[in-house]
Each structure stands twice: as structure tokens, then as C-alpha cells.
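Aim 2, interim progress. The first record below pairs a target sequence with its C-alpha cells.
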Amino acid sequence: MAPWPGKSRRRRRKDLRPRQIDGLGVIELVRTNDLVMISLIEGLLTQERVPFFVADQHMSAAEGSVGFLPRRIMVDSEQVARARRVLRQAGLESELRHG
């Protein structure tokens, strides 16, 4: 039986490709524990006026400020190509999630 009416049971994704969050049109662009890298990427995207948000930013309270939970930079699916271009031009291609 499905967990909710009209919803099918889904298998957990094991791949590491960026994924679109159900219906929100938001793509994971970068996942890292490096707070300096997060700040750099925030500055680049802000400068280029690419809308984004940092997910899991406030999880340090739950994890005890150890830094083992990575922060994720999320971008609207319509802006992902532009955001990727900005990071590539800045030499940060290795930080991008594949996909």
C-alpha cells in the first residue's frame, strides 16, 4: 500500500546527480563543508544577481558546530545554467555537482 493516497512508494536515490526537489524547480548546485567556499560562491552569485539560497546553513546548532553536515547552495532550475557559467568562469568548476 502507498504511504499516502495517490503517492507511490519511491526508492531512495543512490546516485549523486543534482536533483530537482519535487515541484519546486530548485537544483542543488554545490554541496560543501567549506564555509569559505560557501561565502565565495554567495558573493559571486550575488554579484551576478543569480537568485539562490543556502540549505542546511543553520544545522550547525544541531550538529554541535563540528562541520560534518555539508551546506548546499540551491538555485532555481531556470537559473542553473547561468549559475554554473558564473562558477566556471571563476575557476570553481570542480565544486559543481555533476549533471
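The second target in this work package is listed in the same format:
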Amino acid sequence: MVGKQEYSFKPTSKKLNQKRYRPFRILKDIGQGAFQLKLPEEWIIHNVFNEDLLTRCKEPHFKGQHVELAPPPTIVNEEEEYDVEEIRKHRK
């Protein structure tokens, strides 16, 4: 998984944001600690990362630890944009 500390766009809340982006498939081991990843086409960033910026995706040990991954955001004008399916609660 790619760490967000190096490739964050506009943070909404540091405490509530996920610490990593979703898992990505490794396409090629470039060598000397560099890996080419399969990134979404909307992301306009270079797809080669140093191994220090990547962490291995670990399967959860318990059923309650499994979290559904949110779909990746669309990048528009270097900002994350999400599609909202429904609004469950709101304040007046």
C-alpha cells in the first residue's frame, strides 16, 4: 500500500483520514528498492515508488478487523473528488 504522507492531496482531517491508500498490484520490480505499481488511470502521478514508501498489505487476523475499502477518489485539478451515493444523516 502506498503511504499517504508522501502523496496526499488536500487533507480534510488528519485524525480521521486513512493512513494508507488501498492496496495496489506490483507490476514490476525495477531494482534497487523501486517498484512499478498498477495505479488507477485517473491518478496523474508517476507509478514507480521507493520501497520505503510502501508497506505490505496484511490480512486481518479476526473477522471484526476486516474493513471494506472505499473506492479510490477521482483526482480533479489535483484534488480528491468522491461520488456520494446517499446522505444518511444531516444537521440543520
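Residues 26 and 43 are 16 Å apart (CA to CA). This observation will shape the mutagenesis plan for the next reporting period.
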